[in-house]
Amino acid sequence: MNSEQQVDITFELPVSRRNFITAAVAGLAATAVSASPLGSLAYAPSKIKAIAFDAFPIFDPRPVFAMVSQMFPDKGAELSEIWRTKQFEYSWLRTAGAVYKDFWRVTEEALNFAARKVEVNLTSKGKKQLMEQYLMLNVWPDVIPALQTLRQNGIRLVFLSNMTSQMLKSSSINAKIDGYFEHVISTDRARTYKPSPAAYQLGVDTLQLKKDEILFAAFAGWDASGAKWFGYPTFWVNRLGAPAEELDALPDGVGRGMDELVAFLRK
To answer: 22-60+137-266, what's its fold?
Structure first.
């Protein structure tokens, strides 16, 4: 599957932001994703020693849903929408009800539900093909230059994601970025999901740093808000240009890609 294949990935997940930091807004809409080196972090805030990334500022999920559309041309968009939504509904419901299953199983059960809901015949082979896409994700085009710059400037990098360790490690190896990350932290360790404080605490415990020394990089606005509730400085990599959440917790910075995250650290 071509990782650059364009498909609709508008997530029906609320994302949080009412007032962007003025300095970030000025260049946000006009900034294009760059594949060139991003330069030095000479002006990086002194307190930030590490960045904890959610999976999807790094990994591009579009090939998963492109495959859905190939399998089910007439109902692929609807199936993908329900699948994505149920992934997160099930993780949050299981957290609230204290009935835990890991994200791989939650993802599979969400897919099962979505297929029944739209009334398509999802064969065992088809389900296996779709699920295995989550083990071979590639990265967004702006990721590797940004990771290189961050590492060259002494920033420690980790994942802090609801995805399982196997999902994260497999896709990291597939995308050839495993060498950039010091730790792969799955919330599976705490048998819960973000935005539970126990999930975010894993970053502090693993890195042995203070909260204000770890920048959390979120893909979804709800995750940015959850990280702010916990006490992390937070940057929202708002790749989808999503609307604001109303959760009374705004990220410290926002941008459409990784280059803007690096620019935020230069301030």
So the answer is: Rossmann fold (3.40.50)
